[in-house]
Amino acid sequence: MPSTSVANQSKWNGNVEIYPNSDDDVGNYIARAALAKTAFVLEDAKAATTEEHELTLAEAFKHHKKAIFWAAVLSLTIVMEGYDNILISSFYGYPSFQRKYGEPVGDGSYQLSGKWQSALGAASSVGTIFGVFANGFLIERFGHRMVIMASLVVMSAFIFIPFFAPSVGILVFGQVMCGLPWGIFATMGPTYSSEVCPMALRGHLTAYVNMCWAIGQFIAAGVLQGLVDNTTEWSYRVPFAVQWAWPIPLFILTFLAPNSPWWLVRKGDHEGAEKSLKRLASKAVHHRIPNQVALMIHTNALEQAQHQSKSNDEKGWRGYLQCFKGTNLRRTEIACMAIAGQVASGSTLMYSPSYFFSNAGLSADNVYKLNLGVTGISFTGCVVSWFLLPNFGRRTIYVTGYTILSIFLLLTAILATPNQSDGLQWTQAVFTIIWVGTYASTIGPLGFTILSEISATRLRAQTVAIGRNAYNLISLISQVIEPYMINPTEGNLKGKTAYIWFGTAFPTLLWCYFRLPETKGRTYEELDILFERRIGARKFSSTEVELEHVEVDLPGTKE
């Protein structure tokens, strides 16, 4: 950048002094913008865009280790949601849990009724829906760190309810209350990761969110397997108590984490954004930070200009309303479908193998070994997705994965139709493992990546919240109807339930082909321009984009 005649702005307060040959930093950039209006903003934003495109994956890992660390740490809060997600559904086939909360079925065994299974399955989703919407308000007001820390405190208190629940009704209430902070965690990880990582790492760290789910599910499966022979009440209380292990260390780490630089830019704290970026990158690339801040400021200004919004138009309910106006409506549709498509793919059935296969006739020991294997494969699939992301587009991975999932749903349903034998049961088990592996390496992680990337930066918290609640609402419906379809005292469809889920998966696959755009290798400003031009989904990857001139209102720039 030019340094022969630059300006320095002390403390970003609008007091501009001109002097030659000073070190170029963000303060100098702002003061130069004060002299040259928006010319330098566009120039430096273009330079940052070029740097983003030229940054290789190896260089990103080398120079942005701290960004990787902090994104990974704050996303670990999702482990708790993943843990409980599989915990409750796995309890349905757990002997001691059935005796405590179930009813006798006549042969000396106990069964939790379909009504209470539906209530338990839906309870956390109800709480999560409210938590997700609340987060859309809280992030923009208080920032990621403060909201996470407060939620961890609340979470620690709410765990007492399911731990001591004397009845299934109290257990349902406890799940609703725990769902409130889970909703906040569910949207916090992808939004924070998408805002602290460079473009080369964006897909990996947002996809890592799905791995956190898998980690939680793997821990839950291991805990359940270790307690399956325990016939006391501690066999189901201990799994609840394990959740107290996470809040304290996560609270400390979150307190030490940097704020999102994008959030700071939206708040007008450009100096704070500079400091945050310096904490997220190695000193070797600190000279690029002025350009990065310029790109953030220019993107923010472009989005305001595109939607003719004022600085407070994205706050409160106004932000949610903005998501359904103009080109934001299309982006909201994509966010909702990409993440809700995870449920439409049949995950409610395939990610509850314990109850599914216990009703299919497998022994309790084999069921929980299978459950542990499924969650292990889910974890491995997330790692596989990291190798797919640099080599294939988001759209390609998602559509291919959805095609494979639809095929294996249909095959599972066909095998479940005739009278069952050991061979058919184990073949269905193998298909389930293949399905989970495919899901975990394709639409599982990519759903979070697309959800995090697709929105305008000024509406990211609200768009992610709407998308995640689309997922929650569909998940809520699936958790209500799935027990009735599979329960031996209700629909007793067993594996034939896969026919139902194929009926939702195939139309979603068609939507993906015609409506899902490619976001790989695009900066957030480039995506803004592509959506503003209304480029078709299948033409996103091939369309050339040039950054546009836009008026930028900065401290010290007004005459």
Multimeric state: single chain
Basic shape: globular
Order of strands across the biggest sheet? 1-2
Helix-strand category: mainly alpha
Q: Rg to the nearest angstrom?
A: 25 Å
Descriptive account of the structure:
The strands form two sheets. A two-stranded antiparallel sheet has the order 1-2. Strands 3-4 form a two-stranded antiparallel sheet. The protein has two domains: 1-37, no CATH class; 63-261 and 315-515, Growth Hormone, Chain: A (Up-down Bundle), CATH 1.20.1250.20. The chain is 71% helix and 2% strand. The chain has helices spanning 26-36, 39-54, 57-63, 65-75, 78-91, 95-101, 114-142, 144-158, 160-164, 168-196, 199-227, 234-241, 247-256, 261-266, 270-280, 289-306, 316-322, 327-344, 347-350, 353-360, 364-388, 394-416, 422-441, 443-453, 460-486, 497-515, 524-532, and strands at residues 6-9, 16-19, 103-104, 110-111. The chain is an all-alpha fold. This is Major facilitator superfamily (MFS) profile domain-containing protein. Pfam families: Sugar_tr (PF00083). Residues 70-520 form the Major facilitator superfamily (MFS) profile domain.
